[in-house]
Amino acid sequence: MDTQERNDTYMTLKAPSEGLYKEKGSKFLAFAYPVASEEEIKQHLERIRKEYYDARHHCYAYRLGLEGNVWRANDDGEPSSTAGRPIYGQILSHELSDVLIVVVRYFGGIKLGVPGLINAYRSAAADAIEHGRIVEKVASEPFAVTFGYSVTDKVMRIIKDMGTSPGRYTADNVCRIEMEVRLKDIKRFTQRMEEAGATVEHL
What we know:
The chain has 203 residues and is of the alpha+beta class. The protein has helices at residues 38-51, 84-93, 113-130, 152-161, 186-195; strands at 9-13, 17-23, 26-34, 57-64, 70-74, 99-106, 134-138, 140-147, 166-171, 175-182, 199-202. The protein is built from 5 helices and 11 strands; from the N terminus they run E-E-E-H-E-E-H-E-H-E-E-H-E-E-H-E. The strands form 3 sheets. A 5-stranded antiparallel sheet has the order 2-3-6-4-5, with helices on both faces. A 4-stranded antiparallel sheet has the order 9-10-8-11, covered by helices on one side. Strand 4 and strand 5 form a beta hairpin. The longest helix has 18 residues, at 113-130. 33% of the residues are buried. Residues 24-129 form the Impact N-terminal domain. This is YigZ family protein. It comes from Candidatus Coprenecus stercoravium.
C-alpha cells in the first residue's frame, strides 16, 4: 500500500498511569507507560523489579508500532496465560500501541485459581489504562536531508510547508538536517526535496 494512502495514526498513552486491584488479600499494582522501543521497556522493567523487589510476580505485556506487530506477554511464574495475556488483552481492547503495562502482585496467602488470576490481572491493567489519558500518535520515520547552501531557502520552505519539525542540523561543505517525517507525507516530502536539489536519506 502506498504510504500516502496509509492510515498513519494510532492511539497510545500520553503519560504514565497507575491502577490497583485487590482480591482475597492479594494486591495487584498496575503501571502503564508510553514507550517507543524495547530498550525503553527493558529499563522500565528493571526499575519496577528493583523498586518492588519483595513482590512475588512482575507480569507484563507490551505492544509497539503503528501495526502493533511487536508485542510480548509475560506471566513471570504465574500459571500459563493467566497474567501476561489478560494484560495484553486490555491493550488490544483499548486499541493501544507503544504501551507497556506491568502488574506487580503481592500474594495474600489465598490462591485465586485460574479464573481469579485472569480477572485480577485484567482488572488491574484496565484500571491503569482508565487512569491514563489516551491520545492519538502520528507514525513517522527518520530522514536526513543533505543540500548545498544555494538551496537552503527552498529546503526550509518545504519543511515549513509540510509541518515537519527539523532536528539536528550540521553545516560543513554541505548542509544536513535530520527530521521525522510522518508516513503519509514521505513520498511527497522526498519528491519535493529532490526537485529542490536536495538528497533524502532514510535513517
